From TrEMBL:
This is Chemotaxis protein CheW. Residues 10-149 form the CheW-like domain. It comes from the Bacteria. The keyword Phosphoprotein applies. PANTHER family: CHEMOTAXIS PROTEIN CHEV. One of its GO terms (biological process) is chemotaxis. The modification 4-aspartylphosphate is found at D225. The lineage of its organism: Bacteria, Pseudomonadati, Pseudomonadota, Gammaproteobacteria, Pseudomonadales. It comes from Pseudomonas versuta.
Length: 299
């Protein structure tokens, strides 16, 4: 693992284990705190993967049995372990795990895509190695979606004729390594009557941009996740800005992290805007702004 954590594409991972003992990881920026598992109140008719509700500083916190949620064996001591309290996509939840191991620093290039054949039921977005041991990076968005699916809200009112015309001129590429997040964005675009191209990695996105360059479907707006294996959204944006044919593209970084803490890094990478997942109305407004910008620039 690289120790150079000063670069814009560096990240810190919190390593933890479940009953099997295999190492898993979550981006440290998604973690609010780590606490011993508190007393839980079981809620009737709750999702089977929800262990109960804890009260944390006066606020209710849904606690997810992560072992059950990802198809692992339950913990040996169901009352033991600890909670990783996460702040993801505008919501907080507790992940019940066996134990927290340590924090490691790496680069996005150290994170490789999941092994071929992992399948749609996999709950990882990538793998890496720490001290010779394989570490699986948890797809926390997929875990949460399996319990409380994010609603893709329909427009409460029709778009103005001007906004509809602007959006019709947007040729959009959506980039996200989470299938759940990708589908949410695509459904929002479909509800707006828009077709879009998709990619599951930054490298695939670059290939798609090259493929469509010079055709009637040439991309002028990119909506990209930040956390991706091999090349993250910041590195992808810098690559776009350094490529003459793509330097003009409007880039919206769409992240499950708090967008406020990422705005400066996004600006330095060359992104036009950053938005926290997932809000259909806010994504729609961002796309209207993007479409207006590319129209004014003649792209």
């Amino acid at each position: 693992m690289s120790s150079n954590n000063a670069r814009a594409d560096s990240l810190s991972l919190l390593l933890f284990t479940l009953r099997s003992g295999k190492l898993m990881a979550i981006n440290l920026l998604k973690v609010s705190e780590i606490i011993p598992c508190p007393a839980l109140t079981k809620m009737p008719e709750s999702h089977p993967h929800v262990k109960g509700v804890a009260v944390l500083r006066g606020a209710s916190l849904t606690v997810i049995d992560l072992s059950r949620a990802i198809g692992e064996q339950p913990l040996l001591d169901p009352e033991g372990g600890c909670l990783i309290v996460t702040d993801v996509s505008r919501s907080k939840q507790g992940l019940h795990v066996q134990a927290v191991s340590k924090i490691v620093h790496c680069l996005s290039t150290d994170i490789r895509p999941p092994p071929y054949g992992s399948g749609k039921r996999s709950y990882i977005t990538g793998v890496t190695q720490v001290d010779g041991a394989l570490v699986q990076v948890l797809d926390i968005e997929k875990v949460i979606h399996g319990i409380t699916p994010a609603r893709v809200e329909a427009l409460t009112e029709a778009l103005s004729r001007e906004d509809s015309k602007l959006l019709a001129g947007a040729r959009i590429l959506v980039v996200d390594d989470s299938q759940v997040a990708l589908q949410q964005s695509v459904i929002t675009l479909r509800n707006l009557g828009l077709h879009c191209h998709t990619a599951r990695s930054a490298r695939e996105a670059i290939e798609r941009l090259l493929e469509l360059q010079g055709t009637p479907e040439q991309i002028n707006v990119v909506v990209s996740d930040i956390e991706m294996s091999e090349m993250d959204g910041y590195s992808f944006t810098r690559t776009v800005r350094e490529t003459p044919d793509f330097a003009h593209l409007y880039v919206l970084l769409h992240t499950s992290l708090n967008s406020a803490m990422n705005s400066e890094k996004a600006r330095l990478a060359g992104a036009n805007a950053v938005l926290t997942k997932f809000s259909s109305p806010e994504l729609t407004q961002c796309l209207i702004l993007a479409a207006r910008t590319v129209a004014e620039q003649g792209y």
